[in-house]
Amino acid sequence: RGAYVASRPVSVRTLVVGSLIVIFVVLLYSLRVGNYALDTIDGTTNFVGAFGSKNQVGFFASLGIYLCFVFVVFYRRGWPSLVWTAPIGLLSVYMLAIAHSATSVASLPAALGVVILLAMSKVLSRRYRRVLFVVGACTPVGGGTAALKLGPLAFVFGVFRKDLTLTRRTHLWEPGWEGAQQFPILGYSYVSYSVH
To answer: For labelling alongside 43, which of 3, 30, 121, 134 has CA 20 to 30 A away?
Structure first.
């Protein structure tokens, strides 16, 4: 009930516009700060701006791209809307490129795909919407399997100087899973444990 009351004063369009403005300011500030950080695992230096992580910059940049796309598809009102969203979208693309956040780049196509499916569903009849829903639900599974088997995923990770083990993090998942099976209810403790 509280969320319903809080959501009534602000329209979705206003929320998207406000978010785009905030993202633009945050990305400009981050660009102004201009910090870079060394990734101790793979030895690369990446842009982190005002944040402590390239993935945080990547998150804001990918959110900016996503919201620009949503605004243009669903909420724009004439050409002036395109004029003021273009700098936000371009800055977001630039920041995503210099941050080298493979996590954000990998998740962005799926989010944009959902927006495209929603936009297509607005113009289709109910019968075709069901077909579109089934196709939209099966495509990520098929696309993910194809990416693993045919190699495009390796190409995407290679662009960001990563390997398919996500910089050897997946090797830590097996001992973590074994530890979770030994102590399934409370685990080991709040802190992490080392793996040799």
So the answer is: 30
Q: For residue range 101-131, what is the model confidence (pLDDT) as tens digits?
A: 877 887 888 788 877 877 777 777 777 777 8
Q: What dihedral angle (degrees, nearest 10) is formed by the CA atoms of 137, 143, 148, 154?
A: -130
Count CB neighbours of 98 within 10 A: 16
pLDDT tens for each residue of 156-192 = 666 666 666 655 666 666 777 777 788 777 766 655 6
Judge whether residue 10 has pLDDT over 90.
Answer: no
Task: List Cα–Cα distances, 124 to 27, 62, 119, 121, 128, in angstroms.
Answer: 37, 28, 9, 5, 6
pTM: 0.68
What DSSP designation does 169 have?
T
Which residue reads 């701006």 in tokens?
49
Amino acid at 4: Y
Distance CA 19, CA 186 (A): 39
d(CA 88, CA 138): 32
